[in-house]
Write a structure and sequence with these properties.
- It is a single chain.
- With 175 residues, the chain is α/β, with parallel strands linked by helices.
- The protein has a domain at 50-169: 3-Layer(aba) Sandwich (Rossmann fold).
- Helix content is 25%, strand content 35%.
- Strand 7 (116-124), helix 4 and strand 8 (143-153) form a beta-alpha-beta unit.
- Helix 2 crosses helix 3 (61-73).
- The longest helix has 14 residues, at 33-46.
- The chain is globular, with a radius of gyration of 16 Å.
- The relative contact order is 0.17.
């Protein structure tokens, strides 16, 4: 049965991964062909007036959502991955997590100076991963034309770390 809103395809799991957290599971969007189509159509519509040259997808669910958009718009797709997962020469960026740090990388030759880039991920939470991806794009001379995500957890204030246009389909007020 086709649902009216993309939010209706999201499953909320209370108290995961710890008590008091309402986990918003987007896998139920991609497991439903109508939900997945609604998400891709919505993401594509959100950036239809944005001029860009390259889509950058953040590991791993960003790959899922960016791939069909790159295909439909006939744009290159560049991957941002966890440190040690890319085979060619890379640049890296570390960022803070709630308890520690993480590092992501991008191939050094994947973004050309002056290219306009849209960065795609499934979720904006604290904004750390997307901030790091943006810093990688800028380190290679690219310009971040926008951040694109399916969902945003507004209570975590991730958007505040992202001084770029941000496009999201679903916004949850809490964490």
């Amino acid at each position: 049965m086709i649902k009216e809103r993309l939010e209706d395809y999201v499953t909320t799991i209370p108290d995961f991964p710890q008590p008091g957290i309402m986990f918003r599971d987007i896998t139920t969007i991609i497991e439903d062909s109508d939900g997945f189509k609604m998400a891709i159509d919505g993401l594509s519509e959100a950036i239809k007036d944005v001029e860009y040259d390259v889509l950058v997808a953040v590991e791993s669910r960003g790959f899922v959502f960016a791939s069909p958009i790159a295909y439909n718009d006939h744009k290159p797709l560049v991957l941002v991955r966890k440190k040690g997962k890319l085979p060619r020469e890379t640049v890296e960026q570390s960022y803070d997590l709630e308890y520690g740090t993480a590092t992501v990388e991008i191939h050094k030759d994947s973004i050309k100076p002056g290219q306009k880039v849209i960065i795609v991920d499934d979720l904006i939470a604290t904004g750390g991963t997307l901030w790091a991806a943006a810093k990688l794009v800028e380190a290679l001379g690219g310009e971040v034309a926008g951040i694109l995500s399916v969902m945003e957890l507004k209570g975590l204030n991730g958007r505040d770390k992202l001084p770029y246009p941000v496009y999201t389909l679903i916004k949850y007020e809490g964490k």
